[in-house]
Amino acid sequence: MTEPSLDRARTPLLTLITQEALDRDYQVAASRRGDGERPERRRSYRGGVIAVIGVFAMLVTVAAVQTSQNADVDDASRASLIDRVEARQAVLRDNQDRIAQLRDANAQGQEALSSLNRRYADARARVAALGALTGFAPVTGSGVRIVVDNPDYAGPNEVVRDSDLALLVNGLWEAGAEAISINGQRLSGASAIRNSGEPIEVNSVGIAPPYTVIAIGDRRTLGADFVESRSGLRFLNLADQYGFTHEIDNVDDVRLGAAPSSFQRLRSATYLQRNPKTKGGEAP
Known about the structure:
Elements: H1 13-34, H2 39-134, E1 139-149, H3 162-174, E2 179-182, E3 185-186, E4 193-195, E5 200-202, E6 205-207, E7 211-216, H4 222-228, H5 230-242, E8 245-256
Antiparallel strand pairs: 1-7, 1-8, 2-3, 2-7, 4-5, 5-6
């Protein structure tokens, strides 16, 4: 009975090699038996075949062991790679959380900066307004100009004195003036008008006649209100009595400079802080 032939396309390689080697050995042995080969030579051929098969089996075993070792190495490398990937993913998550925290802190910082800028702008506006009212900031506007001069051939007791200019200035304040200067010297709360001998000093600066007094205010009413004010009436009476010349004109656009900054320093008084700062630099 003939053995079925091997399907070479589906048979495993190791089985195919072993089976074909054995079949060829059997064919050779059968042909030699037909030719009357001696039993001794048949045994030697059989031993050679067994040795070849043993060597081949050993090679297959070595290959299987090497493949198993390589598989273990591949598994270890794969596990190490997975651990590294997971570690990098953890670091990435930490960095993403840190970025989110920094973004929140940056948003809070920008909001605080915007609030600080608004408070700074408000403070500057208040400083400018206070500077204009107190005389320590330049101002511009419309108002009146009054020029006062000594009479011709005036004697020592017939010239304009510091008290006369003080009456003029007080009348303008009473009439609603918002800023006043005398011969370019801006008046402030610390300004003084006084005689130093015959010359008059304003802000410790000597001035000479004619004396030009400029007041910024509502020019529609400032001149009339000055004439009707108590101090204005007293000044006009003195002017008529001693013969001072005086002219009052409306002005459309004048600029008054600031009073000397040295007058802003407190010498004896101490600033009273009503709202002490709380932690964080903000007043309650």
